[in-house]
Amino acid sequence: MSLSRILLRKTLSRRSLSLVQARSVSTIQETVAKLVPEWREDIKDLRTQHGDKVLCEVTVDQAIGGMRGIKSMITETSLLDPEEGIRFRGYSIPECQKLLPSAPGGHEPLPEALFWLLLTGQIPSVDECRQLTADLKSRSKLSLKTKEMINSFPKNMHPMTQLCSAVLAMQTESKFADAYMKGTISKSDYWKLVLEDSLDLVAKLPEAAAMIYRNAFKGGVLIEPDDSLDWGANYAHMLGYTDPDFLELMRLYLTIHTDHEGGNASAHATHLVGSTLSDPYLSFCGGMTALAGPLHGLANQEVLRWLVKFKSDLGSKPVTHESITEACWATLKSGNVIPGFGHAVLRKTDPRYMCQREFALKHMPKDEMFQLVSTLYEVVPGVLQETGKVKNPWPNVDAHSGVLLQYYGFKEAEYYTVLFGVSRALGVLASLVIDRVLGLPLERPKSMTTQWIRKEFE
């Protein structure tokens, strides 16, 4: 039996048992506090038992080539398997869709439920998830100075620049930074105020991000939050979207983009800045400046732009395997790439792509852009394999998300990375809390010059 099936059976058994023996409802702070001694003992034992073991050897190619494949970080929230894809605390995306609490009448997991899982390693009960949602609502109000700053941004400022600036504006409210500067907190308790800051930031991000969207694209007409809605649905509401299917899409989107191991640029940057004991606001801002790069978070809008142009270039030709194959070869022979396919780690179709495809098959099967994406999914891997130059020809998460958003009228592709950033906050901030629980030190790898390498090996 596969590992995923074993995990699913064990989890279902645990959940079935919880229906019979109702566990007491704890806050997320109480749940983490109970786990801290166990986690600290585990990391201590790991170093005692295996501290001198070799994780991997590093080649010159890896040092020059973006450190790909170098095993050198601890990230507890997720693990990316080249064949299976991402697992959040051991759970695959389909398992999370089945096991995590959803909104009343909905089917997709609540993002705050995944935040609980990432932070604690436990599937939350419905009541625990509701309590977390209520806690986030109680923390969500933006200060007047933050609102004034967002409203003063130039209209031509990129939405990601606005998001980073807004987060920095909130930094004056950091409880960790205040206590650290006053010397009123011990190292063993750092995690408590890092968690408080993280909850505050996660709570405030939707309104800040929605203000940025409404100012940039909707004439500055803002929409007040709706306290009856969950975290993801309320974000969609403040953006200006009320279609129940779109609310479900937002819950799915905000869930699957949360975390992707610790080595990706936004997660690593957040971890690196956090290792200096910068507070969660500064650390998260570091991660968001990385996410804003064309090779990271901007990839989804680049894919959408390519799809629109690709469709336009097809003209009146019908979307068939033959026409798409011909057009793909023309693209490659012209010296261009087909974006949205391939991944630095994955060697199979990204499961985040597949769950979006399943959503589209359910809600928008006849949409022209989806049909194009679906045909590309069937054609492009074969074309790329035929070139003999591509290790992973399968679609990644960016190949689909833009088309789903466009279908519901969310056409401002320049803003899509902000959606990504709001989601990614759940993963990188959960990791930041765990970093402080484990007492992980300042990150300081050794660098070399190319001349040093030559002297070493020649």
Quick take:
By secondary structure, this protein is mostly helical. It has helices at residues 3-20, 28-50, 60-64, 93-99, 111-120, 126-139, 144-152, 159-170, 175-182, 190-217, 231-239, 244-256, 265-274, 280-291, 299-314, 321-333, 351-363, 368-387, 401-407, 416-438, 450-457; strands at 78-81, 85-88. It is built from 21 helices and 2 strands.
- What is the tally of beta strands? 2
Low-confidence stretches: 1-9, 15-21
Report the C-alpha radius of gyration, rounded.
23 Å
Proportion of residues in helical segments: 55-70%
- How many helices? The count is 21
- The percent range for strand residues is under 5%
Give average pLDDT, whole number.
Answer: 92
The span between the termini is 50 Å
Bulk shape: globular
What are the secondary-structure elements, in order, as H or E? HHHEEHHHHHHHHHHHHHHHHHH
Structural class given helices, strands, pairing? mainly alpha
Tell me about the largest β-sheet.
Answer: 2 strands, antiparallel
- With strands numbered from the N-terminus, the spatial order across the biggest sheet is 1-2
